[in-house]
Amino acid sequence: MIQRIKTAYNQAIFDTDKIAALKVVQEALSEGISPEDIVFHVVVPSIEYMSTSFNQEFGTSLAQHFMTAQIAAQVTDEMISKFKLPPEIIGKMVIGSSHGDFHGLGKKIVIGCMKAQMIEAIDLGLNVAPEKFVDEAILHEATVIGISSMMLHTARGENGCIKVRQIIQERGLEGKIKIIVGGAPYLYDHNLYKIVQADAWAENGIDAGAIVTKLIKEAKR
Amino acid sequence: MITGMDRLIAAVNGGKSDRIPVFCNLFDQGSKELGMSMKEYYSKGEYVAEGQLKMREKYGYDNLWSLFYVGREAELLGCKKIIYANDGPPNVGHMIIQKLDDIHRLQIPDDIFTLPAFAESLKCIQILKKEADGKYPICAYITSSMTMPAMLMGMDKWMELLFMGPTDVRDELLAKCHDFFVKEIAAYRKAGADVLFYANFFGSTEAVPIKFFMEHSLPWIEKDMSAVGTKGIVYFCAQARFNNVINIVFERTGIENYYLSPLADVAEGKRIIAGRGLTCGAINDIKLVDWSKEEIRQEVKRIIDAGMPGGKFLFTTAIMPYSIPEENIRAMVEAVYEFGSYE
Fold first, then answer.
1. Which domain holds residue B54?
2. Helices (H), A15-145
């Protein structure tokens, strides 16, 4: 039964049809599927499905990623309130757009997907100063900083990731806080994340979950 | 003397001049040429025109731009806050649509040409027209009906409305942006722009699924084109790939010129266009910041080898980042002049 639900849910998000996706979830609940199974066996696999579909014919699109994240966040919020036990959070990250950057779509996709994958993502907003990334990571005990940049000058500028790395080093936090970057410039230069001294990059918000999970584990070591 | 316009016309008609045309999309670099801050540079049409003319003269490429920065279109519709950087393009600092009710209040001016907010752009084109004297094509950047809302309300809010409705409000905004598109393109044509970049991120299946493209994007592209005609239009999807929809766009709209993504398979794009129009092959200019001269040469050669055979090919860049060293820009254009030569 769960396979049938998963297929119907995947099709709905593939078609960017939020109403259909929510209907699948409601029907699953009324058929006795647990809220935990809906999150971990329907919603989370749908994010992985989007990720693996990325390179197939016609691929998946930014719109599908956006809808996957929006729906995943909404369903997860609703299901968590029905969980028998509070879910275990894998870890925390802070995320924002780099200094001088006012684009927020990519960040929004990441946050939606993180929620379903039990990673608490604290949204720092747009145009975030480098000091704020580190201060907020410390404040929230987050072990990953996510920096989203839509433009090259905000990705590799002096107040971008490079400065965040410098502050992490100055405060003796190297290894304890990891940095992941993403956004358009990184799609056009896959080595750019090394130039800006990040630990990792994600090609899209959907892929970010697995990479952040890995970084959280590394930072905890 | 063969001019940029000669090269472009020859390429469009499937003929040959001395070499393939090259469009180099330099914008913010004009401030450096004039020794001004970005804010000062973009404050007057004569500065932008002077920057464009100086840069074309310096590197010898074939086009001139009337575009200041992309957010300029939002200013035509009332955006009052632009945030400047010293090392990159200005950002829209205020979204004029904050809530759905603002869409009902959005008014499209009757005549863009006489709009005070268009005055500096108009002055820029007029200077370029006079100075270029028909020798170099003047490019304009016009955002499609479906993409314009992203500049008025932010991409995330627009995606929410586009995919989750309410559909009547969505359609009202699209209709208003279509009205604006038609009037804006008329203004640029009246001012004398020769090449019109039809900017439409939603015209690529990297932006939307193919089903949505067929049901929504394509009908709006058809509507845009049937209202303004395809003369001088270049299909451009904000650097996203779109080889898989070229055939259907050509058949349904008649657009003949395609600006392929820097990540596109140029040979494949050229095969699909199949001599029906101009193929524009773009270099991945983000990498121009760090590439060596030899790497630039090899990449230019790769693109030209893929696109030049059979003619009807133009070499171009994306929106050149400010941090590309001048010697790398020079290395790129010189490699095009070498490998793109017909002589």
1. 4-339
2. 18-30, 35-38, 44-53, 62-80, 105-116, 130-139
Sheet with B22-23: strands ordered across = B22-23, B313-317, B279-283, B257-259, B233-236, B195-199, B138-143, B64-65
Interface check B95 vs A, CB under 8 A: no
Write the residue in B93, B208, B239 that is nearest to A102 by C-beta.
B93
Single residue among A80, A108, A136 that ends a domain in this structure: A80
Nearest in space to B244 (alpha carbons), one of B283, B202, B206, B200: B206
Which stretches in chain A have pLDDT values below 50?
A: none
pLDDT at residue B157 in the model:
95
Q: Do A21 and A49 share a domain, yes or no?
A: yes
Q: Which residues contact B204 (CB under 8 A, 6 or more apart)?
A: B237, B238, B240, B241, B242, B245, B261
Are residues A159 and A209 part of one domain?
yes
From the list B92, B207, B286, the residue facing A63 with the nearest CB is B207
Rounded Cα–Cα distance for residues B137 and A108 (Å) = 40
Could you give the angle at which helices B167-191 and B155-164 cross, rounded to 10 degrees?
130
CATH of the domain at B46: 3.20.20.210
Structure tokens at A216: 């959280």
Cβ–Cβ gap A102/B156 under 8 Å: no
Which ipTM score applies to this complex?
A: 0.91
Residues of A in contact with B208 (CB under 8 A): 16, 61-63
> Which pLDDT band, with edges at 50, 70 and 90, does B204 fall under?
very high
For residue range B220-237, what is the model confidence (pLDDT) as tens digits?
Answer: 999 999 999 999 999 999
User: By CA distance, what is B291's nearest residue in A?
Assistant: A189
DSSP B20-52: --EE----THHHHHHT--HHHHTT-HHHHHHHH
Please write the tens of the pLDDT for every residue from B2-16. 999 999 999 999 999
Question: What domain count does chain A have?
Answer: 2
- Whether the CB-CB separation of B132 and B124 falls below 8 Å is answered with no
Q: How far is A153 from chain B (nearest CA, A)?
A: 6
Read out DSSP for B177-200?
Answer: HHHHHHHHHHHHHHHT--EEEEE-
Chain A residues inside the 8 Å CB shell of B287: 188-189
Q: What is the pLDDT of residues B319-339, one digit of tens each?
A: 999 999 999 999 999 999 999
